[in-house]
Every structure is written in structure tokens, then in C-alpha cells.
Specification:
The chain has 327 residues and is α/β, with parallel strands linked by helices. Helix content is 41%, strand content 15%.
Amino acid sequence: MTSYRVLVVTNLWPYPADPGYGSFVKAQMESLRPLGVDYDLLFINGRESRWSYLRGIWDLRRRLREKQYDLIHAHFGLSGWVARLQLQAPVVVSFMGDDVLGRFKRSGRISLYGRLLQASSFILARLVTSVIVKSDEMKRALRLPAALVIPNGVDLDLFRPMETSAARCMLGLDEKKKYVLFPYNPQEERKRFDLIESAVSLARKEAPELEILHARGVPRERMPLYMNAADMLVLASLAEGSPNAVKEAMAVNLPVITVDVGDAVRLIGPTEGCYLVPREARAIAEKIVMVCRSGQRTRGREWIEQLSMERTAKRVVMVYAEVARRK
């Protein structure tokens, strides 16, 4: 088995202040270890300060003086620029979503910062060795035929169905409630928490036991408890790459109500008990009530097995192999 030494450069990684932040990137990199990938991490805490990216450039050069790598794998466009500002090692960039699609305001318009992100990623994609995107929509936005569509995989060992009552007991939740899971930051405008709040408020007229179950900043290891404790996941985002929460919900057979965003339609597929809805409070509320009345789980796990962590890992290692061959 061929082995690869990889330096991971990313602003998405769990850290003490937010143990769930970027956990999907860490999970993907860990899934590569059995396939011969040994990696070191250069974490750029862009949330703490934008100056962290400048410091990242110097940290990167110091790392490259100390150790030789077969390639650098950057996750997110801004991290990709840090990785590209050297010529010693080839660079693979995984674009994540809003770095290509832009950051949206609640009005549905892309912010000025979002436009700058788009332009930056468009240029960067043409300066690196290989590009990975999470959805066909992102590939079209980049207008880069060579971009490879590889969505993040889902850990089917971690995200497994369990008894709802057991999960609620462990989280201290009310057995009689109906919970709509919201695993995002309510302040992030593109996630449209306001719309979900409105839909839940409308749905309470027929299902007064409804509550929103928040799961922001939850360590990845505990997220399956929230998925299994909830009655449904509702996604109303203005933009997504390949929403990980939908994959995780499918893996535990949790009903999903989603707008047509990112590759969500492909993720739910033909699964009975999952619904595609317009981005309207009343339409979302109707499906929420329908799921409440049904009280059934889905068979989404059978459908989402095609995106298992192991299958995705093999595709990423194939990218590494091609980069190494070209090098």
C-alpha cells in the first residue's frame, strides 16, 4: 500500500471553544489513516482573528523547512491561499460551500464579503494542483471541468439508529415532546432559523407539543444522541455545499424536511418519510405536522450507505495518488 505524508491546512477543526466546529474535516482526515495517509495539522483560527491567515503563511513555511510532505491538503478557500503561497509541495483544495457559492444575507442576496470569497476561490482553483468540491452546483459555479465532486462521507459506525427514548433520557429531554432538530448557529443568516421558527410556530396550531432542539457546538461524538432524540431535521438554508447534517440524519433514519439546496435532493433520494419543500413557512409547517402525525422513522440509512466514510476515503486517496503521479 502506498503511503502519503500530508499537511492539512484548514480553518475548520474542533477546538476547545467549539468542539463541534469543523469536526467533519477531522473525521475525513482520520478516515484516511487506514489507507496509508499520515497527516499533520496546521489549524488557522480565522474565527479568532483574520490575522491568523497571515500568521498561517509563516507557520506553513516553518513546517515545510522542518519536514517534507508529499502534498498539502487545504480545506476551505481562504486556507487554500495560505497553502498555495509556497512552491515546495503540490496543493489539493477542498472547497466547502460558501467559499464558492458566496455568503448570503437573510434577504437572499450575497454579501460583499461573500462576493469576495467567490472571486478569491475562482482564482485559487486555477492555481492549485487539484480541486475537490462537495456538489455539482459548486462545480458549475467554479466553471472548472477538472474539479472533482466528492461530498464528505458519513460515519455509519458513529451515526447509528438507537431507541428514541434512550437518547432522550441521556439528554434529559421530555418524552412527550416533538422535537425539530436545528444543529446550526441561529445567528448564521443563510441557515434561515427565522423561517424554521415561523414554520414551527404555525405547526404548533396542530401539534402544540412541538419544540426546537438546538445542537450548536455539540461534540461530534454526542451528535448521534441529538439525531436519535429528535423527531425530524428541517433544513431551510439559502446555500449549502453538501449538508452533513442531512447525511447524519439519514444514517440514523431520522425524517428530513429540506428545501432544494446543495445536494440535499440527492441525499434524501426516494426515501419515504423525507420531504422536499419550497422555502416557505407554511409549506414547511405542513410537512412538520405530517411527520408528527406519522411518528415513524425512515429507512434513510439504506440510501445513504453510498456515502459511507470508507467509500469517500478511497476517492480522496485516489486524488492523492494522481497528484503524487503528476509530481
